[in-house]
Each structure stands twice: as C-alpha cells, then as structure tokens.
Design brief:
homodimer; alpha+beta; Phosphoribosyl-aminoimidazole Synthetase, Chain A, domain 2; seven-stranded mixed β-sheet; six-stranded mixed β-sheet; 34% helix
Chain lengths: 353, 353
C-alpha cells in the first residue's frame, strides 16, 4: 500500500495527476522524502552533489546528470565533440558548486542506430579534452543501444575537506549575493542557434554559441572560495539565476533582492540582444546553463572574497543581498521592486504534453 | 586530429562503418583505450565496477547501468515497482561481483509524458524495498523529461577491503569454475512473458517471471567469497554464461571447459522448457540476467569454498575448469567437446538496423 503524503499541493489534487502538472522539483521531493539518509551521508538529495563522509577529514562529493537528444541538445547544433565537452563539464560544475575538486567519472552512453564510429570518436575527443582540463579520470561506464537518439548520463565523483564544503542552505539575512563571470551568454547562444535567420556579426555568434555548447565549470574559483571559508551558500547556475537563487533561498529559509543594474552582462550578449530584438534581462534571469557560481558572503568578508578572486583572475559581481524570508524574492530596478519568480528551466512543469 | 588506432578489426573496415557492425564490447574498447587511469585508480574500465583507492586499506567500488524502455524492459511486462527493484539490484550485483558491499546510489530518472504520479510512487516502492534489502542509501540523482519512454540510470558505490577485491583477471589454468544458484530462470521468465500463449502451470510462470523481473544480487555470497581470499576471478552473470565466462577468460588470458551436465537448472526451468518446447541449455548458456556469481577457485581450495557457502545456505555448483588459452572455450557434453561461443546479450552487434 502507498503511504499517505505530506506534500506541497493539497493531497486530492495530485493523486493520479499527470507529472507535467507537478514539475521537476516536486518530483524530486517525492523521491527524496521516501529515502532517509544512511550512515556516512552528510547531505543526500537537495544540493548540487551528495556529500559522503570519506574519513580522514575528507568528503566524497557525488553527482549525476542525464542529457537526452531532443531535450537537452539538438544534434543540428551540437557536434558530438561539443556533447562530450558539455556532458562532463556540467557535472564537474556540480562538484565545483560544493567547493570540491572532481576526480573520477563514469559514462553511460546510449547510441541510436546509424551512429557512425567517427561520431563516437569525436564525442570522446571532446570528453578527453575536458577530462584533461579538469583532471578527471574516466573509470567506467556502460554502452547501450538507444532507440531514440543519444542519451548521455555522466556521474562525477569529487573530493573536498569536510570543513570546507559549501551547501545551499547557509545563506543568512544581510549576506551579499555574488556571481562569477557573466550571465546570459548560453541563452543568447541557444537563441541564435534556434533563430539562424537573425543577422549578427560572426564573432558575436561564435562567442555565444561557444558559451552554450562548451560551458566552462568554475573549479578554480570554487576551490578558492571554499578554502576561504567565508562563503555561506553556493550553487552553480544551471536552471537560471531566478531559479537557482530560489534554490539557495528555499534551502536557507531566506528571501533576496537582486539588483538588475548590477547583473554582469557582456557587451557580446548585449549586442546579440540588439540584433535579436529581445531584452537581455530575460536571458540573464531565466536562461540558465551559464554554469557560473552563485554564492553568498557575510558583508564583512566581501572585500576579502573580491580580492581573493581578483588574484586568480576570476571576475566576480555583487548582484544583491539576502533578506528575511517574509520579503520573498525581489528584483530591484531603480526604485522599483517586483517579485522575482523562478522561471528557469523545469523539465516537467507546464510542458502541456 | 583523431589518432591512429590499434583495433580488433582491420583499420579500413571500421572507419565510418555503422556501430551495429562493431558490437558493444568493441565500442567499450574504443572508449577505454583513449582514457588512461588516473591517480588512485586501481581498475578502470573493463571489470564489473571501477576500483578506486579510498585510503585506510579500503577501496571504493563504482558502477553504472542504464535501462531503457523498449530495450531493457517492456512496461507491458514490468510494473514500475519491478523496474525500481531491478534497476537497483543489477547495479548492486556489479558491486557484489567485485566482492564488495553496496553503500550508496544515485538515480537518474527520465520520464515520458503521461506518466502518472502513482507509477513513480510504485517505482520508488520497489526501489525502497530493494535499497532496504541491500542497505543502500539513495543520496542523489536527477529527473528529466524523456521523449521516448522511461530511462533509468543507476549508479552504485560500494566498499571492500583492498586486499579482498576479486577481479575478472585472476583465473589460472586448472582452477575450478563455480556458479551460485541456478541458471536460465530469467531467460525462461522472459520467454514466457514474450509468448503468453504458452500454457504452463501458474506457479511455474510466476516463479520464472519473478526471476526475470526481480533478480536477486548475491551480496552475502560475494562478501563471503571475497573474505575467503580463495577466489581467483569473479563476475556476475548479466550478459549470459557463455559471454560472462568469456569475459573472465579474456581478462585472464585462459580458456575453459564447461560441463553441460553440471550446469544447475531448476526443475521449474526444465518444466518451462518442456511447455515451451525449447532446449533449456540455450537459456542457461546464453540467456543472461541471472545475476548469479560466476567465479574460479584453485582446486585445493574447492572444498573450503563449498563448505563456506553451505554454511550461509548458498547453493553452489562446480561447472567446469580453466584450461590453457590455446584450447579456447569449450562446452563438454558427454564425450563431445564443441566450441563455446559467447552468444549472450550485446547491444550493438548484429542488430541489423
């Protein structure tokens, strides 16, 4: 017999309902609530990676991501080498978001009929390039025939000293909110790939395309931030800033204010947006897949953090601050404060299928 | 630039060829040859699980398996709860095949449109039952929308003392070959599921159906065998006896003789075979998915191994012996010796798509 539930939605409204009315994050709750942590589990479901006690003052960080053709990527845009890069980089980014270094990977590769060996070789060339860049060893995996396109599931294991792991749940009222690099490049790249008729200088198109197809995980910045022990919460921007800052706020039981004028947007993305005639703020807030680090810091530690990242050549921007839970999430534009809604990517919600 | 290759097939014959002419095991070589092991990697690709040095005399065992609807399972046969059981059990079996105990799991779940929440709950009920049985904690995962059916990727991490890990590569000429339990039940179950018109007593149908849908991983037997330090090589039977004994022989650089009369076949499977009018030997040799342990032992340790397993109530059968490489793999039936061809499951070979 199924057990009665505690759930966000009224119990009558979701039994037997379609999952696309629920959304991915409710689905994760459904899975997580039935599975208590075991011995050695410092953090299970609900952060960028699981955190397992590895002894000797170290933890083992562990994450998995599946990329499906037609959902996460379109081979009309992606070369197999891009897919090799991205499938590993997004998992490395999850390890980085906890403050860890990646060590090992498993690759589960589903291939459709008609795939040629040179495509698999290109995939592995992209993978190898990325594995070398992050010092990740491929130690196993499996290969299956997939009836409907490529399916790529990557699992990455990493390590971190136990006292330096950064969770989502540590943000406190008054903390400053920071982000590394620039936002919106990946979404701009996807937009141009999906709208090839838009005229745009070639160097601009290539730059944002690269950002979308071959994201960079901020491991060096993440490890430096974790070593400082001044970061109260951290996540990588995969779903989109609005959703990911929401994950920090939910986990930490706080609200936030994001200052629109402080959001780091490259001139390349602004130029793209002019050619595409869209508001770049949409890409920046909700586009996702930037894989930059979003983190919170006590105000008295802000200067030290900024100096620390400057030394290693990492750009960082203060984009907001943590507020009491009751204030919710707000976007500040000049004197105007509007609710900031988590509108980043969700696999199931509102799919209307 | 892609590098020139050393490969089983002549170089001219496989460039740009379809992967279905290659076969899964060549594909694994293609992936493995480009990725050298890193620091701490005791065994990478090529065994049931990766073996990573975890310090303190322990290793971390790590494995992944993807199950795709329409390829690995048909929801006309499988309840979501069966799928929850099997997706975890087959990975636990890979950890057991190295002599280890499972500890943690990640679950990556791809769900198509139209999936109902009660189906996900059933899946998790099957998962939880299995996780409790093997003391595995679910610590993370991801959920994605899958355009074409359920995709279930499970990663399991386990542990074992470093000096007790059992690899595929240790079999030596003269060793006895053993298998736990009975063989062919899973293939018999699949056959009856695929041929519902076959009349058969209901208790027989249920028993083999259960073997196929809800396999049992032999963790207790595996740990006992590893503790004995008398086992020279071990694998679990997933692809099929003929293929899996082939994996041991290839890794160990030896041949083998399998005695047909010694193969353990339950009366239930024999009865199934009579109703189905097929030779049960086909199921036993090539059916796969039995998840029994196949292992080799020095002759002077055979009695101790048999007694050890008898004490914990595990059935074990001596089914053959290891021979020199030059003798190949042979099936012995009475006075007759015929080549034993690895004809177990391969995802890509001979698919003809």
């Amino acid at each position: 017999m199924l057990e009665p539930l505690t759930y966000r939605l009224p119990i009558t409204s979701f039994r037997m309902m379609d999952l696309n009315k629920l959304g991915e994050f409710d689905l994760i709750d459904l899975i997580a609530q039935r599975t208590p942590g075991g011995p050695g589990v410092l953090r299970g479901i609900g952060d960028d990676a699981a955190v397992l006690n590895a002894g000797n003052g170290q933890v083992c960080l562990w994450t998995v991501d599946t990329l499906l053709e037609g959902i996460h990527f379109d081979l009309a845009y992606y070369g197999p080498d891009d897919l090799g890069v991205k499938s590993l980089a997004v998992n490395v980014s999850d390890i980085a978001a906890m403050g860890g270094r990646p060590l090992y990977a498993l690759l589960s590769l589903g291939l459709p009929s008609g795939v040629r060996e040179d495509q698999v070789r290109l995939f592995m060339a992209g993978w190898d390039e990325t594995a070398r860049a992050y010092n990740v060893s491929l130690v196993g995996g499996d290969t299956v025939y997939s009836p409907q396109g490529w399916t790529v599931t990557v699992t990455v294991m990493g390590t971190c000293p136990k006292d330096r792991v950064v969770y989502r749940a540590g943000a406190r009222v008054g903390d400053f909110i920071y982000v590394t690099g620039n936002l919106g490049s990946s979404a701009a790249g996807l937009y141009l790939l999906q709208h090839p008729a838009i005229t745009c200088p070639e160097h601009v198109r290539l730059a944002v395309r690269q950002a979308h197809l071959r994201p960079v995980a901020r491991v060096t910045a993440a490890v430096s931030l974790a070593e400082s022990r001044l970061v109260t919460a951290m996540i990588d921007i995969s779903d989109g800033l609005s959703s990911d800052v929401g994950h920090i706020c939910t986990a930490s039981g706080v609200g936030c204010e994001i200052y629109a004028s402080h959001l780091p947007v490259s001139e390349t993305v602004r130029e793209c947006a002019r050619y595409a005639q869209v508001d770049p703020l949409e890409w920046v807030l909700n586009g996702g897949e930037d894989y930059e680090l979003l983190f919170t810091v006590r105000p008295d530690a802000a200067q030290e953090i900024e100096e620390r990242l400057a030394v290693i050549g990492e750009q960082v921007s203060c984009i907001g601050r943590i507020t009491p839970l009751g204030d919710g999430m707000r976007l500040v534009k000049g004197d105007d404060k509007t609710p900031l809604l988590p509108r980043g990517y969700d696999h199931f919600k509102g799919r209307g299928l």
